[in-house]
Amino acid sequence: LSKKEGKQIFKGMNFLITAGATREKIDPVRYFTNHSSGKMGYAIAEQAAKLGANVILISGKTDLNPPDRVKTIMVESAQDMLEKVLEYYEETNVVIKSAAVADYRPVVTYDKKLKKQKDHLTIEMEKTTDILKELGERKNKQLLVGFAAETNSLEEYAKSKLTRKNLDLIVANNVTTEGAGFGTDTNIVTMFDRNLNKVELPLMSKRDVAIKLLEKIETMMKEERP
Ligand code: CTP
Ligand code: CA
């Protein structure tokens, strides 16, 4: 694992990494979000920078400190994240989308606090843009890496996301397994590349998952440009 450490294997390459959860506002005091500590994405950003990449990290709210030598940009909603990502996409070589993006947002955001009234409240939601799918459609030279958070049928769902979003690699995890997923310092992931080669990693720290992922990316880049 450590043999690549400190080597500048990504020197001159631009990486765009997203992390954390987006927040979709209901009113000035409330929002919809989902579980994501940001730890996986921050670990990838940190390790990519150590390996010499120029890293831009576009992050939803987290409790983490911005990694050293990484340009970190904080965003709030899925729409904000989409706009920031598109701003940098053209000059990017590798995109890694580990953020937990909200799939829906409230149709209306109230500018005053909603007052408690009826016994039941219905909030109408609309789909957000699928950022990764959008990137897949606009892809020219970029290597595109997605994540898949699943509770069941991991392999089937992960492969369908890989194809549907025109990705080069997908990193899937079962978020209900102990030691994997939200908030933990460890993860258990399976990667599928665009040729459906499968790499199953055992339980390891998110830092080590980040290194394994980056090594896989390096291998894929070498295969393209030997
Ligand atoms: N993603 C995205 N924009 C969205 C939703 C998801 O860019 N609006 C990205 C995530 O960052 C992740 C990948 O798509 O890299 C898969 O996210 P996931 O939630 O697992 O899959 P979805 O396609 O949203 O499908 P579902 O939630 O129904 O499983
Ligand atoms: Ca989703």
From TrEMBL:
Question: Can you tell me which family this protein belongs to?
Answer: In the C-terminal section; belongs to the PPC synthetase family.
- What's in the keyword line of the UniProt record? Decarboxylase, Flavoprotein, FMN, Ligase, Lyase, Magnesium, Metal-binding, Multifunctional enzyme
Residues holding CTP = D103, K113, F147, K161, K165
Signal peptide residues on this chain, from the entry's feature table: none
The domain of life is Bacteria
This entry's comment on the bound cofactor is: Binds 1 FMN per subunit.
GO biological process, alphabetically ordered: coenzyme A biosynthetic process; pantothenate catabolic process
Q: Which reaction does it catalyse?
A: N-[(R)-4-phosphopantothenoyl]-L-cysteine + H(+) = (R)-4'-phosphopantetheine + CO2; (R)-4'-phosphopantothenate + L-cysteine + CTP = N-[(R)-4-phosphopantothenoyl]-L-cysteine + CMP + diphosphate + H(+)
Required co-factors: Mg(2+); FMN
**GO terms for cellular component:** phosphopantothenoylcysteine decarboxylase complex
Q: Quick one: where's region Phosphopantothenate--cysteine ligase?
A: 15-226
- According to the entry, every stretch annotated as the DNA/pantothenate metabolism flavoprotein C-terminal domain falls at 11-219
Pathway of this protein? Cofactor biosynthesis; coenzyme A biosynthesis; CoA from (R)-pantothenate: step 3/5; Cofactor biosynthesis; coenzyme A biosynthesis; CoA from (R)-pantothenate: step 2/5
Stated EC number for the protein is: 4.1.1.36, 6.3.2.5
Question: What one GO molecular function would you report for this record?
Answer: metal ion binding
Placed within the complete protein, the shown segment runs 179 to 404 of 404
Its biological purpose = Catalyzes two steps in the biosynthesis of coenzyme A. In the first step cysteine is conjugated to 4'-phosphopantothenate to form 4-phosphopantothenoylcysteine, in the latter compound is decarboxylated to form 4'-phosphopantotheine.
According to UniProt, the name of this protein is Coenzyme A biosynthesis bifunctional protein CoaBC
